[in-house]
Amino acid sequence: MTTTSDGAAAQKPAGSETSRRRVLRWLWWGLGFAVAGELAWIGLSFVRPRRAAGATGDGPIFVAGPVGDFAPGTVTAFPAGSFYLARLSGGEFLALDRTCTHLGCTVPWNAGTGRFDCPCHASSFDITGAVIGPPAPRPLDHYPVRIENGIVKVDLETKLRRTAFVPSQAVSS
Amino acid sequence: MAVVQPARKGAAAETDDARGAARRQWLGRVWRSIFPRPLVARTDRERAALTRFTFLLHLRPVLVPARTLPWTHTFGLGGSSLVLITLLAATGILNMLVYQPVPGVAYDSVVAIQDQVPFGALVRGVHWWAANLLVVVLLLHIVRVFATGGYHGARQFNWVIGCGLLAAVLANNFTGYLLPWDQLAYWAVTISTAMLAYVPLIGGMLQQVARGGPEIGTQTLVSFYTIHTTIVPVVLIVLMGFHFWRVRRAGGVVEPPAAPGDPEGDDAKRLFLPDLLLREVVQALVIVAVVVVLAALFGAPLDERANPGMSTNPAKAPWYFMGLQELLIHLHPVFAVMVFPLLAGLGFLLLPYVTSDDEPAGRWFLSPTGRRTATLAAAAALVATPILVIADDLLAGGPSGLIGGGVLPLALAAGAVWGTFVLARRRYGASVNEAVQAVVVLLAVGFAVLTLIGVWFRGEGMALVWPWLR
What average pLDDT does chain B have? Predict the structure, then answer.
């Protein structure tokens, strides 16, 4: 083996053999990495989350009902849409996601105390979804509300994160 | 064969005899093709040959060091893990014949295993108990390996493989937790996967990948089922083979030093068959008996059907993740789910490489000094952890900002680690390995206390309660 390569090196221009070998070696390595990359890509595309189609009730726009159905200062649960429709004392509407921002439990509305109390880790939120008791790090997420011809509609496609409650998040009738 | 028989009996009887002999001879040939040598070895020579030439036995050495044989040297924890994994595979396959990984019917199929399949509740119970005992036995195995210094020299990388095995077993326990699709499962997995969202930058993506979508649903169940029944078992089998091979290459389990005046000296050996094999079979039978009795007496829990609209109170992660959840109650989430676990995990993985190779291994807790410093560290963690938890509960009442809930506790933990190390070195004259051992004991006992607090002392709304008043 060594003698042939030595002989070849002696006959041919110096370095041609080694450079061919080097190219081939790089080619093999490159191909190997390409194959590994492709396989990894295929594997990863199988675990990449797909969009759950129609996961929420009636589709993206949820029709909650006529404005008059909701008294000021009350909270109505919509289990089909996984959200609460809160009507603040001033008459404004706010659609709140029911998922606790701490670790994802479902927060029930406690009409007696006027708070959302998370059963899992004792976070509490007021009627606007703002945190009044830790450990939740931020207010409940909310959805855009539209009022068309006196009907309250909620856009469940667009979940909005926020760091605090500001009055502009609520929609007046 | 070609024996000439005297023609004294009748011709018919003669052919019968010949036929019987031929049949016996043929059966003998088949038998010898399967078992070329006698199954019952009567002499040591035959036993050694049996060990060497039987497939299952040849995985073990013919001779083992006599000093590694006493039960209290290893407690047979590694072998017990293998027994439990075998039980899990057997019962898991039976469960797979009935179980359906689809949210609408998963719960019903588990109820069917429990109520309709004969011995179904027992099989599911064995699976549940073996899975939980496996985590306990593995943790004890790690304690044994660590405390007898069985992670130096040729064993260094096997410690890392062992960490991989622990991760795989935890992954399978966790994915299996979701499969019954009851309230317990649904909310424990909700909580655990929600912890991922606190990882900075990629947290949201990690959570979506873990759940297979924004919420726990069909996709989550199907991928958990696949991980549980295919991916992790394959990883486990490969890693176990690697782990055992490495043990064999290192010359078996770590040897304790010879007692002074030991008449047999350093190199006394015993035959694997029967001295070690008998002990292992006895231990395996005891383990199986314990699991079956536990399964028959207590069974596996099954809560009500999962209801995404109603969280349980309190909602707890599986018990082996409760220490993490307890951290989350006290610390800033980024520190609780990322900084602390990452630092601790990395330190744990690299233990063989931060300690010295030269110190004699094989003695429990290294030396009298090692034993004393380890005991003191354990006592310190046992006292300090509950005090810190209660103090944080009374003073802060929840996690505070990045400084109060992150940097400050990290500094406190770093101070405790450094203080323990320096104290062990200076005050007690411990070697580097003994001081590292004290630090690991401190952290491990601290985490164990956090887990116990999370499991038993947290009631409704995760408030601190006495378990007997719940």
Answer: 87
Determine the distance in angstroms separating the CA of B235 from the nearest CA of chain A, rounded to an integer: 16
Is the CB of residue A53 less than 8 Å away from at least one CB of chain B? no
Which A positions 125-164 lie with beta carbon below 8 A of chain B?
A: 133-135, 137
CB burial readout B70-100, b (16+ within 10 A) else e: eeebbbbbbbbbbbbbebbeebbebbeebbb
* Cβ contact B409:B331 at 8 Å: yes
Distance CA B295, CA B424 (A): 44
Q: Which residues of A touch B327 (CB under 8 A)?
A: none
Domain boundaries, chain A: 2-47, 61-172
Interchain proximity A122–B328, CB inside 8 Å: no
User: What is the pTM for the complete model shown?
Assistant: 0.85
Confidence (pLDDT) at B447: 93
Q: What's the confidence (pLDDT) of residue B266?
A: 66
ipTM above 0.90, yes or no: no
Residue B206 lies in a domain: yes
pLDDT digits (tens, 9 = 90+) for B448-465: 999 999 888 888 767 788
Tokens of B100: 């359906």
pLDDT tier for residue A5 given thresholds of 50, 70 and 90: very low
Select from B248, B403, B242, B389 the least CA-distant residue to B330. Answer: B389
Q: What is the residue range of B279's domain?
A: 64-258+266-308
B200 near A CB under 8 A: no
User: Has residue B1 been placed in a domain?
Assistant: no
Measure Cα distances from B151 to B154, B250, B342, B373, B431 in Å.
8, 10, 21, 20, 17
Q: Residue B292 is encoded by which pair of tokens? A: 């079956």
Residue B34 has pLDDT above 60, yes or no: yes
Distance to chain B for A72, nearest Cα, Å: 24
Q: Do A120 and B308 touch (CB under 8 A)?
A: no
Query: What top-level class would CATH report for the domain A61-172?
Result: mainly beta
Shortest Cα distance, chain A CAs vs residue B231, angstroms? 12
